[in-house]
Design brief:
GMP Synthetase, Chain A, domain 3; binds zinc ion
Length: about 450
Amino acid sequence: MDFLAFFSRNFVMPLWARREHSNYLKYYREMLKTQYYSPDVILADQTLKMREVIYHAYNTCKFWQERFDSLNLKPDDIRELDDLQKLPILTKTDLRMRLDDMISSKYSDLSKLTRFTTSGSTGVSVTVYADEECTQFKRAATLRSDEWTGWQRGERIAAIWGNPKLRQDFFGIIRNLLLERYYTFLDTLKMDEQSMDKFTKQLLRYSPGMLFGHAHSLYLYAKYLQLKHPDVKIKPHGILSTCMVLHDFERKLIKEVFDCRVTNRYGCEEVSLIACECELCNGLHVNSDALYVELLDKSGNPVQVGEPGFVVVTDLYNYAMPLIRYNIGDSAIWTDRKCPCGRTLPMFERIEGRVADYIVTDKGEYVSGISLTENFACQVDGIVQLQIIQEDINKFTFNIVKASDFGESTIEQISNLVNKRFGSKAVFDCVYMEKIPMERSGKYRFCISKVKKDL
Ligand SMILES: [Zn+2]
């Protein structure tokens, strides 16, 4: 039993928030209501917040003042959310080249800001600063969505993560023990039998309320339990899959092994939570309290419902470093379905993955990496796992983990699919390996395109 959960939820959390002068629990309680507001109210609220951010950015950031002036625009020209389209897309290159000029003059003491640096697994590493109020607001939004998993705040958390780091000073240890409640980690950079066994023992001992981790690492661990310890029963209240696209076959197996809900969440370091599935796991609710999200096509026009578009975000809370129309580098699809949970936040049907994981053909077509790997995996016999790397526009490498029935017909099937998907000029090499290597960050990518894209 987790006796500390009640104590943490009802006493430690409010007292600690007061000690830190943090408003996150107040924001959290408000967000429990705003998620059911009518769409018109949500849009009106976003419009007001967006206007404030625009004024603030223009008046206190050199970068934004220059950008507006170069376009002959004034903040008053951006009154409605659609007016944002008058501004160009903010890129990772802008962030890298102009970081200093993007920080508001009102927040020049960087030591008072929270610094986020992306891992750079797409080849581009960027740094973003956020002010304290923004950080606390995002913390509240994350807490709200974490509870959609079935986990309740205060309960223990176990994580499958790359490079887990916990503070080791006295305050850090107490904070984690009573407040954060991360009890155990499985380092995704070292997922061998010994570490998975140790992790299993700790899960059995502490029965965490939530198991949290990268989609594919959760899958690998579930598969390991199924094969090696079929009698072990670990049943958290919820499983949160994040950081990577969660494939249907992965969700199915994780759900089967742990006999509990598997919730998919989408976010990034720069703006934190972007969208998350609710308890019905029926599409992802966008974090509209903190962000205004656009999905755009290659020409920069909004896409229709059901069409994939690249994710562009305006942060409605970051006053330290305003991010207006920031291209996250991922692709997602809108749905106009209403979720039976009653929440009115706009919804993604699904996340298509990183734009860097899209293959671009010699005709300029974009092929989603997630659909592609699933497509190949389903249609080609003799393969345990496959990684597709687009080295050049018509040159591919297939990293293959062979199954026992691998043979000449496997290569023939791949060849036919390459022809069909990428055109007759496409050539490929096969590299055989024991397992697909993971990224330095501890994540897996099954489709990598090295071709530069316009998005
Ligand atoms: Zn819902």
